[in-house]
């Protein structure tokens, strides 16, 4: 009996990590097929039962690592959205997001405060674009020694809380973008099923600022009351199945798909079309593409006579008339 139990344990230990979904209270069977596993994901599986101190000590050696429950990343270790999406896509920490899906986006409220940047609660990852975050006993911050969020904030690439003290309102709220660090182009609203031109695809920050500051409402008539929700799968499990960049979902909610944007670059998220997929429930909000064309001036044509002819027949062609000028009489 003991040998049978031990053999079963060994069989489970040798199974591919993709066969299991990670939960805080253990492993549950998720799939029956086996995939080649990544070293970083295996490391996550081996450490999920460790203490917070042991887990952090081991993962500190990686570019990305998780902090203990109820803590925040150091200011210089907070991730950008692009870094957080790379962690999700490459499974550089253990999480339960399906390959076809994408993490959620949130902002803190008085009753639900979350860390700034990238974090994990249970098996789900989340992103907050607020410059100020909060430790929460249910959240582990996802950090990096090369976190780029501080540089974005220093370059005034983010908004600030509308309240002077950065106090959180009870529900969804908007940010007050008091700087020019994020330039939002002139916007245009397209009908559902459309996609933006490549030059008009917005970034997450542009989409968030446009929603927070009433720019989307000005071109769509739809009042935006919350941050853009990350969503790429649309009505099916393919990714992407929606327009790339910023779009209005179901005529009331600002959404964002990072494909074909700088936010999805580290994860390698580039659609076959370069602009995503038109979706019957998604109306893109795009930047107006500005193109400037200049007609180059034609070159000045000068007749250059040979050395012998120059003495007996000096002449030059006048631009732009083409008239030949004779200097032999002078």
Largest sheet: 5 strands, mixed
Structural class: alpha+beta
As a percent range, the share of helical residues equals: 10-25%
What general form does the structure show? globular
Can you count the beta strands?
16
Average residue pLDDT: 75
How far do the termini sit from each other? 119 Å
Beta percentage is 15-25%
Describe the structure.
With 330 residues, the chain is of the alpha+beta class. It has 3 domains: 16-169, no CATH class; 182-293, no CATH class; 297-330, no CATH class. The chain contains 8 helices and 16 strands. The strands form 5 sheets. The chain has a 5-stranded mixed sheet with strand order 3-7-5-6-4. It has a 5-stranded mixed sheet with strand order 10-14-12-13-11. Strands 1-2 form a two-stranded antiparallel sheet.
Compose a concise summary of this entry.
This protein has helices at 2-14, 39-47, 52-59, 81-90, 149-154, 204-212, 215-220, 307-312, and strands at 20-23, 26-29, 64-66, 104-105, 117-121, 124-128, 140-144, 160-161, 175-176, 187-189, 229-230, 245-249, 253-257, 282-287, 315-317, 324-326.
Write the layout of secondary structure elements.
Elements: H1 2-14, E1 20-23, E2 26-29, H2 39-47, H3 52-59, E3 64-66, H4 81-90, E4 104-105, E5 117-121, E6 124-128, E7 140-144, H5 149-154, E8 160-161, E9 175-176, E10 187-189, H6 204-212, H7 215-220, E11 229-230, E12 245-249, E13 253-257, E14 282-287, H8 307-312, E15 315-317, E16 324-326
Parallel strand pairs: 4-6, 11-13
Antiparallel strand pairs: 1-2, 3-7, 5-6, 5-7, 8-9, 10-14, 12-13, 12-14, 15-16
């Amino acid at each position: 009996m003991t040998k049978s139990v031990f053999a079963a344990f060994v069989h489970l230990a040798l199974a591919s990590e993709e066969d299991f979904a990670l939960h805080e209270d253990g492993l549950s069977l998720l799939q029956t097929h086996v995939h080649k596993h990544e070293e970083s994901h295996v490391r996550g599986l081996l450490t999920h039962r460790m203490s917070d101190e042991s887990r952090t000590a081991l993962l500190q050696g990686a570019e990305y690592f998780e902090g203990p429950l109820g803590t925040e990343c150091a200011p210089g270790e907070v991730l950008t959205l692009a870094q957080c999406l790379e962690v999700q896509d490459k499974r550089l920490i253990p999480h339960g997001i399906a390959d076809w899906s994408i993490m959620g986006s949130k902002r803190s409220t008085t009753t639900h405060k979350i860390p700034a940047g990238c974090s994990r609660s249970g098996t789900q990852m989340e992103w907050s674009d607020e410059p100020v975050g909060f430790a929460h006993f249910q959240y582990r911050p996802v950090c990096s020694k090369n976190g780029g969020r501080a540089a974005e904030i220093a370059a005034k690439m983010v908004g600030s809380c509308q309240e002077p003290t950065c106090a959180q309102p009870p529900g969804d709220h908007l940010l007050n973008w008091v700087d020019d660090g994020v330039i939002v182009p002139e916007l245009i609203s397209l009908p559902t099923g459309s996609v933006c031109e490549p030059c008009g695809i917005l970034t997450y920050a542009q989409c968030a600022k446009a929603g927070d500051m009433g720019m989307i409402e000005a071109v769509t008539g739809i009042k935006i009351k919350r941050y853009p929700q990350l969503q790429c799968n649309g009505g099916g499990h393919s990714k992407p199945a929606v327009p790339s960049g910023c779009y209005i979902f179901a005529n009331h909610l600002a959404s964002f798909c990072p494909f074909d944007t700088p936010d999805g670059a580290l994860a390698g998220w580039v659609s076959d079309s370069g602009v995503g997929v038109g979706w019957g429930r998604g109306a893109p909000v795009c930047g107006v593409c500005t193109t400037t064309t200049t007609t180059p001036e034609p070159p000045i044509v000068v007749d250059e006579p040979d050395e012998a002819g120059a003495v007996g027949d000096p002449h030059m062609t006048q631009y732009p008339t083409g008239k030949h000028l004779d200097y032999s009489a002078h």
